[in-house]
Amino acid sequence: MENYSPYMTFSKEEWAKLRFNTPMTLTESEIEELQGVNEQLSMEEVSNIYLPLTRLFNLYITGSQQLHSITDTFFGKQTNKVPFIIGIAGSVAVGKSTTARIIRALLSRWPNHPKVEIITTDGYLYPNAVLEERGLMNRKGFPESYNTRALVDCLIKLKSGAKQVKVPIYSHLTYDIIPGQYNTIEQPDIVIVEGINVLQTPKPSKHSVFVSDFFDLSLYVDASEADLLRWYVDRFKKLRSTAFADPKSYFNRYANISDEEATITATQIWNNINSVNLQKNIKPTKNRADIILRKEDNHVIKTIKLRKI
Ligand SMILES: Nc1ncnc2c1ncn2[C@@H]1O[C@H](COP(=O)(O)OP(=O)(O)O)[C@@H](O)[C@H]1O
Ligand SMILES: CC(C)(COP(=O)(O)O)[C@@H](O)C(=O)NCCC(=O)O
Questions:
Q1: Measured from the CB, is residue 54 less than 6 Å from ligand 2?
Q2: Buried/exposed code over 30-44 (b: 16+ C-beta within 10 A; e: otherwise)
Q3: What is the pTM of this model?
Q4: Where is ATP bound in this sequence (predicted)?
Q5: ipTM
């Protein structure tokens, strides 16, 4: 029997050819900005993969903006501008925040949508005091550790054209929500919502509204668990001399541990928390995404799957 799939699959070579449909170059300052996002990011990868990807996004966004103005014409009045919302899901350490920042840098160069904001869902984790009270300190990142209702409310406001939306802030330094501090988002053209939980569907209830109901486009960044664990351990080791070295860091006790001890500690955290969450709650959401980016061992994207429209 013929195998059917809702996705079109492109190898990185096939995908790279798509960039020749439109000449796409980066200015010096854009290259500098992208190198600031991640020093290991190769500009070849940006040109071959991310430029064609954001070119496609731009076409979708332009289409959605045109639809908005057609609706205005029909009603004979101007309605509030609402942002185009892109969701990015995937495991801890797969590179969601890096992907979000690359996409932001590339999308903000287009004149029809210069203002791109990122929301990271860690801001919607419950504060440690609440997690401790509920016995959830070792379940950070699991569905029950998030105030999903507050995240949905934020997305409702954004999609209603609210002038200002306040987003709570999570500090990886203190490993907690910063009390009373917010990022204020003011009528952006595009919002990227990035987090492990963004494609999850809570248990059905009478008033079920999912975070993903507000997405115009969604991405899942995928990699093998062996690679994820290695990236997680590598990041943990690097953090010893940066974030952990700060006396205010929740993980300051790990600042001076050896390579071997760091590998053991990070692997334990991975196995006890992040791996369980990946298998149980994150991976099952992969096929809900419109686009699946599969990485190989060096973060290079190997295949791109695009949902057929
Ligand atoms: N495209 C990329 N090229 C090179 N390194 C990357 C890339 N994306 C992520 N990384 C590295 O992988 C690790 C995890 O990335 P990060 O964006 O922090 O993941 P997440 O937000 O999914 O937890 C970091 O050390 C980051 O520097
Ligand atoms: C904060 C996270 C849950 C990720 O949250 P996200 O930004 O995807 O909402 C994760 O980075 C985390 O801290 N996990 C707990 C185990 C650990 O320290 O890795």
A1: no
A2: beebbeebeeebeee
A3: 0.95
A4: 90-97
A5: 0.95
pLDDT digits (tens, 9 = 90+) for 54-102: 999 999 999 998 998 998 899 888 888 899 999 999 999 999 999 999 9
Question: For the chain, which residues make up each domain, given as ranges?
Answer: 7-307
User: β-pairing, 165-171 with 176-185?
Assistant: antiparallel
DSSP secondary structure letter of residue 94: S
Output the CATH code of domain 7-307: 3.40.50.300
Tell me which residue has tokens 């014409």: 73
Which residue CA neighbors atom 9 of ligand 2 most closely? 122
Q: Is 96 annotated as a binding residue?
A: yes
CA of 299 to the centre of ligand 1 (A): 8
Q: Which residue's structure tokens are 């509920």?
A: 134
Walk across the sheet containing 84-90 and list its strands: 7-11, 301-307, 291-295, 217-222, 84-90, 190-194, 116-120
